Each structure stands twice: as C-alpha cells, then as structure tokens.
Amino acid sequence: KAGVTQTPRYLIKTRGQQVTLSCSPISGHRSVSWYQQTPGQGLQFLFEYFSETQRNKGNFPGRFSGRQFSNSRSEMNVSTLELGDSALYLCASSQMLGAGEKLFFGSGTQLSVL
Amino acid sequence: KNQVEQSPQSLIILEGKNCTLQCNYTVSPFSNLRWYKQDTGRGPVSLTIMTFSENTKSNGRYTATLDADTKQSSLHITASQLSDSASYICVVSASRGGADGLTFGKGTHLIIQP
C-alpha cells in the first residue's frame, strides 16, 4: 500500500508569490490534515479536511487555505508569501476524523521564501 | 492552555547504550499520547499510541510509559543503533474534535555516535 505522497519535495519562492502544495493520502483514508514545521515552533496544525469539507482550522492567517477533492487528495495554498513562511509543510492522512485516529505523515514539502 | 514539554532538547549517546526521553503535558481533556520518530528530511512515523488506561507500550526496542496522574510520559530506547538518530516528538490528543485537538512537543533531537 502506497504511503502519503507530497509534491513537490522542495520549493523556492520569493516574497509576494503564491504557492500550491499537493498531498495524496493513503488509499481509503478520508481525512487529511496539514501542519507547518519550523525549528523554533515545532509542528503547528494548519487545517483538516474530511469528505471535501474543512472540519478544523488552526491559528494561521487567511493567506493559508486548502481544499480536498472527491478522491481525498488535498491541496494547500499560501498567497502573498512572507519570509516567515519558510518551513517544512507536512500533511497526514487517517481513515476517519477523530482524536483517536492514527496519523500517517508524508515526507513533506520544504518551502524556502527568499 | 494545552502544553507539551519535552526534555532534553538534544541528547548524544554512544551506540549500544540505552536512553530515556521525557514528556510532560497539560492537556485536558486527555484522549491519548503518541510518540513519533522523525528522521531528518522525512515526515514523523508513529512509534506508540497510549490511552488513559495503558501505562506501558512497546514497539521493538522502544518502550513508552504513561503516568496519567502526574501527566508524564517517557520513551526508553534500548541498545541504541545508529539508525535511532532522529527527532522524537511527543504528541498529546485531547478528547474532542480531530487534528485540532493535537498538542505537539518540540521534540528531542537524539544523536547516536559510533
């Protein structure tokens, strides 16, 4: 069974640009969540999608958005990039939505904003 | 405010030695506690998940303990190997919602020297 796939693995952008990251969950998993990881802050929750609907959202500005498609694949978009957006962006999938669900993480997209 | 504190921040030990990583949390209401291993440049991989009623869980050379009364957990690594070099992240789940109920520690960076 294929794991969680994130593309691209690396991205270099300049301030003010926008970026779209993609996440393909494990087959059969319906929930996808996104996280930002920086050395100083650790992992921070961005948002979670289930059945094409955003179910939960973290404390990030509106420049961060996402969506989920009918095949459970998900994308996240960051508009008007800032230097502080440089981070590893991870997505995770789980079978269902819930506090007890086991998360399976992708390898992440390393975003550098210059 | 829900918090997860891990110690030490970093640790260097010789191959073959044992080590113990600590996690203290203030998360309410508590659902489960998870330990993840994250290799450099990769996504976190689940090692153990423990609920309130479980006080020990093993996964090969990794043994996690949970004391729900004192809100402490530890991860013990036996007979360390070079491949154990990684960051170990403690994550506590509140018994509500989905991924928004997860509180992440900042991790312990473990280096195994030959």
Task: Describe the overall structure.
The complex is a heterodimer of chains A (114) and B (114). Chain A has no helices and eleven strands. The mean pLDDT of chain A is 94. Chain A is mainly β and 114 residues long. Chain A has strands spanning 5-7, 10-13, 19-24, 31-38, 42-50, 53-57, 64-68, 74-78, 87-94, 104-105, 109-113. In chain A, the strands form two sheets. In chain A, strands 2, 4, 5, 6, 9, 10 and 11 form a seven-stranded mixed β-sheet that branches. Chain A is globular and about 35 Å long. With 114 residues, chain B is mostly beta strands. In chain B, the strands form two sheets. In chain B, strands 2, 4, 5, 9, 10 and 11 form a six-stranded mixed β-sheet that branches. A five-stranded antiparallel β-sheet of chain B has the order 1-3-8-7-6, with no helix packed on it. Chain B is globular, with a radius of gyration of 14 Å. The mean pLDDT of chain B is 94. Chain A binds chain B through residues 4, 6, 31, 33, 41-45, 48, 50, 55-58, 90, 92, 97-108, 110, and chain B through 31-32, 36, 41-46, 49, 51, 89, 91, 93-102, 104-107.
Our Rg estimate of chain B from Cα atoms comes to: 14 Å
- Give the class of chain B from helix and strand content and strand pairing: mainly beta
Please tell me what the overall shape of chain B is. globular
N/C terminus separation of chain B: 41 Å
Which oligomeric form is depicted? heterodimer
Mean pLDDT of chain A: 94
How helix-rich are the residues of chain A, as a percent range? Answer: under 10%
The coarse silhouette of chain A is globular
Global Rg of chain A? 13 Å
Count the beta strands of chain B. 11
Q: Work out the helix count of chain A.
A: 0
Task: List segments of chain B where confidence is low: pLDDT < 50 over at least 5 consecutive residues.
Answer: none
